[in-house]
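Translate structure to sequence.
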C-alpha cells in the first residue's frame, strides 16, 4: 500500500515538473518573440538602418564577393592557406567552375585575414567584377557551410580561429564580418540587435536579424526574424554556430 502511495506521489511530482518545464519553454519563446513586436520589426526593415553604426560593413557596389568553396557533398568547406600562389590557384579553379575562365586578373592583395583577387569578367550577362577571397590559415581555417540551415535549430562547428589574442572587440568584429558576408546582398537583411558576452571559457556572440521575401503584383512581403548564436572556445579557438527561426511578420503590400 505504501509503495502505491509513493508511486502516485512520484507521478504527481513528475506531472507538475513537466507542466513547469512546459511553461518555461513557452515563456522563453514568448520572450524571444515579444522582444521585437511586429511594428518594431517592420519599422526596422522599411525605415531603419540595416546595421548598427559600429557594425562591420563593406561596399562592393556592383561587384560580387565570393569566398572560395570546395564541395564535399553535402557540405562545403572554405579552404585556408598562407601561400599566395596556392590561393591564386584556388581562384582559377573557381573561375573555371563558374564559366568565367576568360576573366582578367585586375589586382591581388594579401591582408592579415585573407588573400583577395579582383577579376574583371568579359561576360555581358554577369557582374562586371568578382572578388575572390581565401582565408589565411594563420587567421582562420576550416569553415563548413553546406549543412547550415537558418530555419532549423542545429549546432555546427564553423571552424578554428588561429589569431591571438582574443578580446570582446575582436569577437564582435569577427562574427559581424562572418554574418555580413553571408547576408550583405539580401535586401531585407537587417540587424535588430547583437551582443557579445564573455565567461571563463568562452565568448558568446548573439545576433537578432531579419530576412525578407518581397512580394510582387499586390502580394504581401514576408519578414522572418532569426536568432544567430556563435560560440568561441578561448582555449582552442573552435567556433560553433547555430541559427533559430523566431517568427514571421506580415510586411507591406507591393
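Result:
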Amino acid at each position: 500500500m505504501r509503495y502505491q502511495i509513493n508511486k502516485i506521489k512520484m507521478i504527481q511530482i513528475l506531472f507538475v515538473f513537466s507542466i513547469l518545464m512546459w511553461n518555461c519553454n513557452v515563456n522563453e519563446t514568448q520572450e524571444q518573440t515579444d522582444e521585437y513586436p511586429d511594428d518594431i520589426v517592420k519599422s526596422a526593415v522599411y525605415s531603419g538602418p540595416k546595421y548598427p553604426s559600429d557594425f562591420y560593413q563593406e561596399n562592393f557596389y556592383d561587384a560580387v564577393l565570393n569566398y572560395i568553396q570546395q564541395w564535399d557533398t553535402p557540405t562545403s568547406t572554405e579552404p585556408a592557406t598562407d601561400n599566395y600562389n596556392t590561393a591564386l590557384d584556388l581562384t582559377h579553379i573557381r573561375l573555371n567552375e563558374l564559366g568565367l575562365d576568360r576573366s582578367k586578373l585586375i589586382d591581388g592583395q594579401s591582408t592579415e585575414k585573407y588573400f583577395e583577387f579582383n577579376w574583371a569578367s568579359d561576360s555581358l550577362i554577369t557582374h562586371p567584377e568578382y572578388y575572390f577571397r581565401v582565408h589565411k590559415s594563420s587567421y582562420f581555417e576550416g569553415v563548413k557551410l553546406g549543412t547550415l540551415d537558418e530555419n532549423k535549430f542545429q549546432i555546427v562547428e564553423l571552424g578554428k580561429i588561429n589569431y591571438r589574442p582574443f578580446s570582446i572587440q575582436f569577437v564582435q568584429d569577427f562574427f559581424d564580418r562572418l554574418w555580413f558576408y553571408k547576408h550583405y546582398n539580401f535586401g531585407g537583411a537587417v540587424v535588430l540587435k547583437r551582443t557579445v558576452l564573455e565567461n571563463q571559457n568562452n565568448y558568446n556572440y548573439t545576433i537578432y536579424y531579419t530576412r525578407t521575401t518581397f512580394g510582387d503584383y499586390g502580394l504581401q512581403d514576408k519578414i522572418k526574424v532569426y536568432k544567430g548564436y556563435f560560440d568561441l572556445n578561448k582555449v582552442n579557438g573552435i567556433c560553433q554556430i547555430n541559427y533559430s527561426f523566431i517568427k514571421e511578420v506580415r510586411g507591406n503590400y507591393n
